[in-house]
């Protein structure tokens, strides 16, 4: 029943007999507003997806790097001054078979204790020298020890659990540079023939050439990285090995098939009281032999060990970066996690797990035609830098740009004779630069004298015959690392290094006439040096 207000009823004005229109329901108006809002949200989502796709195609997202480090290279920001190591190229007969290991994320997964995985025999690695260097450099020691979660006092004892070997395959590891007083992780492939220290699980722990700590590779597909560095002879991305984590076990079936099974968390850990053994390959006889891991140092002069050393299994885990910045640089999602970043996984899927080299776009890596991308990673050499800058110049300079990265550099022209490079030339900013290297032997880096007046330095070992050979690709182009870039050298001249005399003799020769003062100065210096040396416990080889 309806109730009307008092008084006569009123009706809207309309023709007699017409039916009044029904009022529009309020819920229909609400539905229209909701649909409009959904359309607006979808439009925003679509626009953001388009922006992401465009950014990805332009290479504006950070793509992590996977460095290539040759056996003789000093490496970036090494922990200690380069030792006098003379690694010789590894004989092809000693290289790990391409059929060894299981396919895993674009690489080959191997167990660290696989017989013949490492080459034994004579090695130039010096764990005692590394221990003494760290004892005399507290800042490097603190950063070095932080990688393994130990104190600096435990460094000699941890070094004594390792044994020197030579890699028989190009091996992917997490390398740590000494930057800003800290150990900074980066993904690195070490060339076969590199001398390393490994633990009883067969995991590389130290690179002998520079003393840098090493750890297992990040848990990410190799196709999600961008390769930085010079390809050496025999390098193939699908031949790169990774040592299995402690939760993985690689089993060979019928000498041909390899499968991955889950293993106990403490795999590769010897029983209590048992000495760990690794089966190595003798480079001279090509025969396998067993070597006891560790026990190479004389620790009698060291303070007693007051802490438990980490087990090989506890350290054989994927990298978990300590900051978001470090995580991004290593291809990980975020700090404290081992999962790969989604962009890294997507990139690997799009290019078939074939990583592009520095300067390529993702499209180029997957087989489509595309120009060189320098927006994300920057140029790989000074020639690429000049090419990038020349795109904004007038047509008068277009001929200069033709010598950019789009045109392959010519093979390096070598002349002269000797055991080290004396001078070399390269192109930077469309200008030919010639640098002269020191003529005297040195174990560290030496200053270069260049005709453009810029200050440059290079490790003399990088100019040796073995280093030049390993850094020259199959096309005959020798690339030399100068700072953060790898420069293709256009021409180089060999020289014979002059053996240096001791600094004491050279410094005191001009003052030889002062017969009354020279002996006194020498005695005082010797006394002070002796006192300082006795304050630091030294690590010596056992036996």
Question: Would you kindly provide a written description of the structure presented here, covering whatever features stand out?
Answer:
By secondary structure, the protein is α+β, with helices and mostly antiparallel strands. It is 23% helix and 23% strand. The protein is built from 13 helices and 26 strands. The strands form 7 sheets. A 9-stranded mixed sheet has the order 4-5-8-9-10-6-7-1-11. The protein has a 6-stranded mixed sheet with strand order 18-25-19-20-21-22. A hairpin with a 4-residue loop joins strand 9 (204-207) and strand 10 (212-215). It starts with 25 loop residues before the first helix and ends with a strand. Residues 15-19, 45-60, 361-406 and 502-534 have low confidence and may be disordered.
The dominant shape is globular
Reported for the largest beta sheet, the result is: 9 strands, mixed
Strand order of the largest sheet: 4-5-8-9-10-6-7-1-11
Task: State the distance separating the first and last CA atoms.
Answer: 112 Å
Low-pLDDT windows of residues: 15-19, 45-60, 361-406, 502-534
Helix content: 10-25%
Structural class: alpha+beta
**Which whole number gives the mean pLDDT?**
75
Write the layout of secondary structure elements.
Blueprint: H1 26-58, E1 65-69, E2 102-104, E3 107-110, E4 118-119, H2 127-136, H3 138-148, H4 155-159, E5 163-167, E6 171-179, E7 182-190, E8 195-198, E9 204-207, E10 212-215, E11 226-228, E12 241-243, E13 248-253, E14 257-262, E15 277-281, E16 288-292, E17 297-298, H5 312-315, H6 324-329, H7 342-350, H8 362-365, H9 382-390, H10 398-401, E18 413-416, E19 420-428, E20 431-436, E21 445-450, E22 456-459, H11 465-470, E23 479-482, E24 485-488, E25 491-495, H12 503-508, H13 518-535, E26 540-541
Parallel strand pairs: 1-7, 1-11, 3-12, 18-25
Antiparallel strand pairs: 2-3, 4-5, 5-8, 6-7, 6-10, 8-9, 9-10, 13-14, 15-16, 17-26, 19-20, 19-25, 20-21, 21-22, 23-24
């Amino acid at each position: 029943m309806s109730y009307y207000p008092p008084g006569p009823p009123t009706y809207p004005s309309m023709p007699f007999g017409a039916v009044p229109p029904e009022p529009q329901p309020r819920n229909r108006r609400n539905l229209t507003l909701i649909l409009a809002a959904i359309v607006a949200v979808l439009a925003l989502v679509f626009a953001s997806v388009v922006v992401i796709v465009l950014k990805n195609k332009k290479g504006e997202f950070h793509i992590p790097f996977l460095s290539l480090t040759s056996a003789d290279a000093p490496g970036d920001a090494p922990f200690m001054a380069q030792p006098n190591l003379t690694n010789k190229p590894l004989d092809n007969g000693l290289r790990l078979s391409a059929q060894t290991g299981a396919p895993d994320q674009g690489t080959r997964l191997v167990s660290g204790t696989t017989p013949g995985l490492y080459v034994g025999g004579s090695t130039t690695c010096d764990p005692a020298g590394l221990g003494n260097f760290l004892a005399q450099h507290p800042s490097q020691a603190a950063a070095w020890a932080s990688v393994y979660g130990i104190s600096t006092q435990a460094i000699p004892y941890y070094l004594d659990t390792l044994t020197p070997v030579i890699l028989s395959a190009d091996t992917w590891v997490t390398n740590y540079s000494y930057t800003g007083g800290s150990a900074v992780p980066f993904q690195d492939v070490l060339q076969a023939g590199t001398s390393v220290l490994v633990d009883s699980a067969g995991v590389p722990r130290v690179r002998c050439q520079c003393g840098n700590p090493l750890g297992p590779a990040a848990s990410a597909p190799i196709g999600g990285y961008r390769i930085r560095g010079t390809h050496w002879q025999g390098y193939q991305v699908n031949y790169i090995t990774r040592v299995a984590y402690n939760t993985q076990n690689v089993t060979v079936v019928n000498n041909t098939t390899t499968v991955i099974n889950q293993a106990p968390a403490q795999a590769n850990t010897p029983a209590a009281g048992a000495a760990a053994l690794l089966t190595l390959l003798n480079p001279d006889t090509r025969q396998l032999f067993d070597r006891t891991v560790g026990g190479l140092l004389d620790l009698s002069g060291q303070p007693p060990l007051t802490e438990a050393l980490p087990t090989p299994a506890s350290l054989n885990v994927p990298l978990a970066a300590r900051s978001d910045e470090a995580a991004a640089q290593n291809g990980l999602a975020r700090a404290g996690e081992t999962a790969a970043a989604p962009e890294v996984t997507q990139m690997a899927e799009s290019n078939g797990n074939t990583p592009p080299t520095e300067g390529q776009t993702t499209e180029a890596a997957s087989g489509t035609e595309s120009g060189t991308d320098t927006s994300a990673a920057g140029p790989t050499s000074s020639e690429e830098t000049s090419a990038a800058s020349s795109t904004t110049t007038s047509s008068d300079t277009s001929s200069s740009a033709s010598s950019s990265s789009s045109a392959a550099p010519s093979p390096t022209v070598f002349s002269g004779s000797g055991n080290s490079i004396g001078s070399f030339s390269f192109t930077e900013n469309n200008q030919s630069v010639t640098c002269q290297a020191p003529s005297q032997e040195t174990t560290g880096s030496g200053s270069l004298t260049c005709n453009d007046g810029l200050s440059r330095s290079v490790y003399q070992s990088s100019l040796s015959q073995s280093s030049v050979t390993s850094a020259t690709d199959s096309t005959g182009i020798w690339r030399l690392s100068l700072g953060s870039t790898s420069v293709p050298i256009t021409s180089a001249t060999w020289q014979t290094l002059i053996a240096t005399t001791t600094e004491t003799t050279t410094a005191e020769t001009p003052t030889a006439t002062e017969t009354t003062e020279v002996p006194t100065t020498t005695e005082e210096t010797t006394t002070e040096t002796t006192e300082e040396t006795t304050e630091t416990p030294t690590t010596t080889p056992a036996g």
